[in-house]
Amino acid sequence: MRRICRLLNHIDYTVLNTILPPRSRDYAQQNFICILNPSLVQTLKKQRSLSKKLTHLALARYQRKNKAK
């Protein structure tokens, strides 16, 4: 956890149109992302790609949890 906190301290949250992790641990646990001043086209392309990956991760996590029951 300390390593993650150190990494978050070195992220430049003033960068525009870049996908960043959220500053709050509460949002990070929910897999939220942060984008400052996004441009519509570039952000939508990135968001679609991330959405597909995260959907697969969530499905795998769900299947692992329910397989153990």
Brief summary:
It contains 3 helices and 2 strands. With 69 residues, it is mainly α. It has a two-stranded antiparallel ribbon.
What tags apply to this protein structure?
single chain, 3 helices, mainly alpha, 69 residues
Note down, in words, how this protein is organized:
With 69 residues, the chain is mostly helical. It has one domain (2-67). Helix content is 59%, strand content 6%. It is built from 3 helices and 2 strands, in the order αβαβα. The protein has helices at 2-9, 25-29, 40-67, and strands spanning 19-20, 34-35. It has a two-stranded antiparallel sheet with strand order 1-2. The radius of gyration is 15 Å and the shape is flat. The two termini are 29 Å apart. The model has no long low-confidence stretch (mean pLDDT 77).
Mean of residue pLDDT values = 77
Q: In percent, how much strand structure appears in the residues?
A: 5-15%
Major sheet strand order: 1-2
Task: Give the H and E element order.
Answer: HEHEH
Q: How many strand elements?
A: 2
**Can you count the helices?**
3
Major sheet description: 2 strands, antiparallel
N-to-C span: 29 Å
List unreliable stretches of 5+ residues: none
Q: What's the domain count?
A: 1
Query: What spatial form do the alpha-carbon principal axes imply?
Result: flat
The whole-angstrom Rg is: 15 Å
Q: How much helix, percentage-wise, in residues?
A: 55-70%
User: Structural class per helix/strand content?
Assistant: mainly alpha
What secondary-structure arrangement, pairings included, does this model have?
Elements: H1 2-9, E1 19-20, H2 25-29, E2 34-35, H3 40-67
Antiparallel strand pairs: 1-2
